[in-house]
Amino acid sequence: MKEQIEKLIKEVLKNLGIEDEVSFVVEHPTDFKNGDYSTNVAMILSKKMGINPRDLAEKIVIELKGLPKQGFGEINKIEVAGAGFINFYLGREFFTENINKILEEKENWGKNKKGENKKIIVEYSSPNIAKPFTIGHLRSTIIGDSIARILTSSSFKVIRDNHLGDWGTQFGKLIVAIKNWGNLEEIEKSETPIKLLVDLYVKFHDEAEKDKTLEDKARASFLKLENKDKDATDVWKRCIDLSMKEFERIYKKLNITPFDTIYGESFYEDKMKAVIDDVKKKNLGKESEGAFIIEFSEEKKLPPLLLLKKDGSSLYALRDLATDKWRKNEYGNDIRIINEVGSEQKGYFKQIIEAENMLGYFTEGQRIHVAHGLYRFSEGKMSTRKGNVIWLDDIINEAEKRAGEINEETKEIVAIGALKFNDLKRDSLGDIIFNWEEILNIKGDSGTYLQYTAVRANSILNKADMNRSIIDEIMIPSEIIDLEKYLYQFPEIVEYSYQSLQPHHIATYLIELASSFNNFYGNTQILVEENKYMTYHLNLIKAFTQTMKNGLWLLGIEVPEKM
Ligand code: ARG
Fold this sequence. Notes:
Blueprint: H1 2-15, E1 26-27, E2 37-39, H2 41-49, H3 53-66, E3 75-81, E4 85-90, H4 92-105, E5 119-123, H5 135-153, E6 157-161, H6 169-181, H7 184-189, H8 193-210, H9 213-226, H10 230-253, H11 272-281, E7 285-288, E8 291-294, E9 305-308, H12 316-331, E10 336-340, H13 346-358, E11 367-370, E12 375-377, E13 385-386, E14 389-390, H14 392-406, H15 411-424, E15 432-434, H16 436-439, H17 447-463, H18 482-487, H19 490-500, H20 504-523, H21 534-555
Arginine (ARG) binds at residues 123, 126, 128, 163, 165, 320, 339, 341.
């Protein structure tokens, strides 16, 4: 529709003898009173031509009305408003047709074909073995899963990858700690194995303050691991199994779509040499105090990127370069990559992306770092800190306890929906300050409010006697309500979220959609004999529940049966 209007305007400009490129916009006015689409073309042009914008707008409208009728599709009114805006109103027919379209397309409603035949890796979550699944990882998991869903809806072939932190010097430390102070069999039998592993890791650092040889021993242990030493590998593998069990439990609880690949950093161990070769071939590397680094040109203002330590062991960055080189070989030169990782690694990803450009691995924009801000806790009840970390389980338990106060039966779906929505409703770059009252508020802009509205709409449909004598002709009111005006915009919102890689556009839209539904519902007697529009109203409600369901699916949020 937008393109159609743009085309009509361009035609009129040509008829008026205006040949220059004019950069005008056609968009939805914020207030539905000002039409369904609006353009500033007259205002832009009037400045150039030095004439009154309203006069020019009137002239354009007369010309528009003179064009062949069939070019207008569903537009039935064009008006000049304000300082010189031209507003377009869609007719009844368009909205009625759109409801039918939603009911036909069902779960496909809202999808687009922008990503057809394109492959994209969405890498997210990526927790670290033998460390807590932090709320930073929670954000990455929630946002990454949603982005993967949005891309799937835009027809991309999405590969979901969990880039586990399962390699690096910290495993040397862990191996030393287990050997000195731990008992792996007992840890494996424990209810809380990860907490015990983290305790050991903390103990290592305490002890290393006193005993300077421990760090060297840890480095030696990691080197053993890199050289495939049998004992070291055995301990490492067992720690992975313990952590994976824990992570799988969390993913299930959070209703996260299963990953397509879980390679982890260790997978790239034998693929790192090829990167070092590339770096050397391109003359990009440099020895620095025994370490091997890449330096960037002055104007990039980036610190050097460390690839190898002086003992020859690999670093995080080298594993990332190896990962991306391998991905390119595996999935093809045109593979796109998204890393959903906290904004504390923003500088690091700038280095990685720049290094990969220098190495010729990728072109500008082919791989993207999608960052997110931090969670922050207002001091008080909810800063359940154990040591220095906030355990995800404590958060989930608290959410369920509070959701249970609304309804015990649905508390899991409500709690997870609330946590996810609280994250996805905002620009992901900002920090989140935890506020339980806001998160589980049935009236505010919360996941709970959306679920509640969807349940309410479903219950009307369930109550309606759908077997009522078939009415041949559906009576349709002439008035067009806001709910209908929100409904048709859903596919545009999905597309916009894909382009910006920001799920919050969907979240904000769903809140508006739910409010317009509640408005309609509050003002309309639906299931009463006198309502001659009942069939139409029920179709409208069905179209609403379908759109809400599809929208919540994109955010990874389920709708409970009852609430
Ligand atoms: N495991 C890392 C962490 O917890 C995140 C990994 C991000 N992905 C990457 N390709 N570097 O900080």
